[in-house]
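Deliverable D5.2: sample structural annotation.
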Amino acid sequence: MSAFLVVDTKIKNPVAYEEYKKLAKPIAEKFGGVYRARGGTMDVRQTELWSPTRIVIIEFPDMESAQAFVDSDEYAPVKPMRENNAECTLFIVDGD
């Protein structure tokens, strides 16, 4: 069953964040990740619980692959680039 890593990102430093994006993408792909949305136009219809900012959705073959990406030694030095240059909410959810 596929799993989706979903990140809502409020970018604070666009220049540094661009570098993060360049480094993170090939690592996600190494773990089977396919970007399905990456900051595209949103049509937000309801915001009672949460008001999204910039959504990234990466599909992985399964929950374990998504978790392995986030917890990987390869991603570990890149992750602080995201944390230091953006405010984020990140979660992984099982797909169909």
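Annotation notes: Helices lie at 14-30, 63-70, 79-85. Residues 14-30 form the longest helix (17 residues).
The annotation will be released with the project's public dataset once the embargo ends.
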